[in-house]
Amino acid sequence: MNRAFGAVLVAILATASAPSAAGATRAAPDGAPGAARAGQVVTYDQHSVMLDGRRILVQGAEMHYFRLPSPDLWRDVLEKIRAGGFNTVSLYFDWAYHSPKRGVYDFTGVRDVDRLLRMIDEMGMWAIVRPGPYINAETTGGGFPAWLKLVPGKARTSAPGYTAAYTEWLDHINPIIARHQVTRGGSVLMYNVENEYQANTDAAYMQALQDKARADGIDVPIVTNVCCDAGSWASTWGSGLGAVQIPGVDDYPQSFDCANAETAWGPWGEGVTERIRPDAPGYAAEYQAGAIDLGDTGYERCRELTGPEYMRFFYKNNAITSGSTLFSYYMTFGGTNWGWLAQPNDVYTSYDYGAAITEGRQLTAKYDEFKRQGYFLTALAPLAKTDPATAPTSDSPALTAVARSNPDTGTQFVLLRHTDRAAASDDSGVLDWSTPDGRYRVPVRVVGKDAKILVAGYDLGGQRLVWSTSEIMTHAAIGGRDVAVLYGTEATGGATVLRYPARPRVRVLDGEVTSTYDPATGDLRLDYRHEGLARVEISGGGRRSALLLLGTHATVSPFWRMETDAGPVLVRGTSLVRSATVTGAAVRLRADTAAPGQIEVFAPARRLSVNGQPVGVRPTPSGSLVGRLPGPDRVRLPRLTGWRTQVEAPEAAPGFDDSRWVVADKTTSLSPYQPNTLPVLYADDYGYHYGNVWYRGRFTATGTETALKLNAITGRRGSYLVWLNGRYLGAARGGVEDDSVPNPDPGPGTFAIPDGLLTAGKPAVLSVLVENMGHNDDWTVDDVRMRQPRGLTGAALIGSGAALSWRIQGARGGEDLTDRARGPLNNGGLYGERHGWSLPGYPDGSWRRVGSLAGTPVAPGVTWYRTTFGLDLPRGQDTSVALRFAEPPPAGHRVMLFLNGWQLGLYGGGGMGPQTDFVLPAGLLRHNGTNTLALAVTAREASELGAVSLVSLGTQRGGVPVLPVHSPAFR
Ligand code: GAL
């Protein structure tokens, strides 16, 4: 392929059958897929990607289907993403999530990614697909299935063993992706190979991934996301082997230090995306939109770290300074590390990420900021092709302008910001601005940490915008006139100049706006303060009429824009608009309301219905329709009562029958990690990859034993519990990722043997329960780290040379899954898990009753609690329910929470993390039916349980229909 010049033809019209567009609720915006479901030709040049020759600007939102195990909620989140001004979703595909065992793959139920891509196709969005094979993403193994630890050959290289393994994954995932490409009428626009694979690694491997994709029918541009060496994988680097077509940059300028949310302002730099290849558009592959909570401060702090101020400054700065036209924001919806999905070092159950859409699917102030920016970026076509331009000069050294312009239209985009990035002052100045329509002195002001993108010389529909000091949120031709939404900082002055061949008529419908017309230039200048929502109608003057809506950040937030076959509609007042259609004189919306209130609709229509219900409306002087909508019905959540309890861990008793457990007697392992003692006790080597594992070690006592010395690696937050002849000896913390350096004494525990517990010449049994918190990622391409074992790495008797013989037990079936619906990451090897105690329908009638959990004592070991509760939540309403535990988490024990058999959280002290609310996603939670909760409590010391309750994280009238997710019961 010719990579050297100009537009590179990367795809041809494919003839394969297009995915069905059935169920599409709206036509797509200009240039978006879905409008016509025919295949499109994808090309690109240094400015942008083009579809059938038309330039597009990609505003992408990263979300992970595997962190939301309820397919109908994928639609909910996707609709929220689309309504928030995004036209694209960026998706990792997690190999480990689909493959419990070498050669075994599952793409059904919560793993049905074909269904996910179909939804995206139908919604008229684009997708950037990122199947790895390595994805990082704070998932266990960085997306590598744990069975890969048993495959020879260094991962993320051309090693034959690894190649054969990943080829298997790509054999499965690539064909699914291929049939959803835009070239075949679908949504997949770009294909991302590997993840932050830095230079000087294995170029042949990088090339092989691409060759494999092409062989599997991938014909859209191949991209990659680079982290720390921007030159990687561009054709200009080295021989070009492994180079991708559009290299992208990952930028996390705010760092992950959520504890310092108040003071952080780009500790990791200004975050401007570099253009890596001169012939490809700038691509912000992962631009920071939240943070992992490394310091366990809670995700609200991460949301502050990456809040609207940060977004305004850094995103706008990046857009104009880099001129990129491909953006993707990591994360826009984070979701949940349910089951054993988490990589243990960096995250806990919640992957909320401080994102714009919370883990409980609620919209935040960050979402509003995305909407303001996304609507702007996707509505102004000249942005898709800009070059650096001469910026206006400012008479205030405190203010700096940076400009780009579209070479065809001349439209200018001027970034206005403080010269000193850190400045939080209130500065005014005058720009000397040579616009395409003449030279002007333009008064500007920047208050606090802010940045604006001002526009000049723009054909705003049928109007000519000369310049404005207000920012444009969006504009649309509705009913034969232009409706534009502009905004500025609350209580600051604003001015907008439009040009007319003749004096137009100006009617101020609302607010205080003055206007002057200069017949010499044709300039109509409007002056106003950004306050409330002013409305100005302009008619005559030789152009079609226009309605300008002039607001503030707050007053333009409630606007929604939706595309219909009859053109765009604007809606104001609901908490979300999901879709709109216009038929004849009627506009039909699907929308959510969090409270009763007014709805205003700008549409070529006289009648309105919302969620299928007619809404009484009256026309307004603004040419819109106004009506009232009800809010949600009150939600009552039941108290959790009727608990029953049962102590488990029979494995601790000396007489327990472990004859069917796997004998652990290996003396070698593929892991380069040296065991402290033999045999090798690494859980993975015996096929137990996730969750808890039990070990039972037998020996004949000599009577001279004084203590036990154990070593175990669990990953951060993990611990292990030890019994000898049924007597609990205590617990210790397991080794962590850093121990892969390697540490000769990982997760050490020395346990004194009480006098009289052992008798010389008699058999003794050691029982050890080890948590496996998940597998290290492979960010550093480091085989030692990647293959760091889980489980015991050593066991020795102090004071005696008696030999130990071992058996091991983990998740039921090991790699041969017994619960295919919930998949490989849901369960580990607790006795209760192996015997169905976590499942709905388990016969717990003989278990002891407990009135309330609060204050209930738990003894060291494992104890289960179960209850059921009925819900009858209002229908046609979306209530996000969570299970709330006491704060702060207890030091002595931790709780594994199962809802209808799905493991949805790990709560507790001892470094488990700060989380006390655990989202129970609809679909897993039966909103109108009976639910089963099971809590497995592992106590390292005697302690007391706290209160547990159901709470609502938010409720709206509206939502999407959610069908129950298949959740097999106890049989
Ligand atoms: C990036 C990586 C992502 C994720 C992110 C931090 O470097 O590509 O997968 O790990 O950091 O959340």
Automatic annotation (TrEMBL):
Catalytic activity, as annotated: Hydrolysis of terminal non-reducing beta-D-galactose residues in beta-D-galactosides
EC number(s) per entry: 3.2.1.23
A matching Pfam family: Glyco_hydro_35
Keyword Hydrolase: yes
Gene3D superfamilies registered for this protein in UniProt: Beta-galactosidase, domain 2, Beta-galactosidase, domain 3, Galactose-binding domain-like, Glycosidases
Beta-galactosidase domain boundaries: 382-559
Position of the signal peptide: 1-21
Transmembrane segments: none
UniProt keyword annotations, A-Z: Glycoprotein, Glycosidase, Hydrolase, Signal
Entry keyword annotation includes Repressor: no
InterPro entries named in the record: Betagal_dom2, Betagal_dom2_sf, BetaGal_dom3, BetaGal_dom3_sf, BetaGal_jelly_roll_dom, Galactose-bd-like_sf, GH, Gly_Hdrlase_35_cat
SUPFAM superfamilies: (Trans)glycosidases, Beta-galactosidase LacA, domain 3, Galactose-binding domain-like, Glycosyl hydrolase domain
Family according to the record: Belongs to the glycosyl hydrolase 35 family.
Protein's name in the database: beta-galactosidase
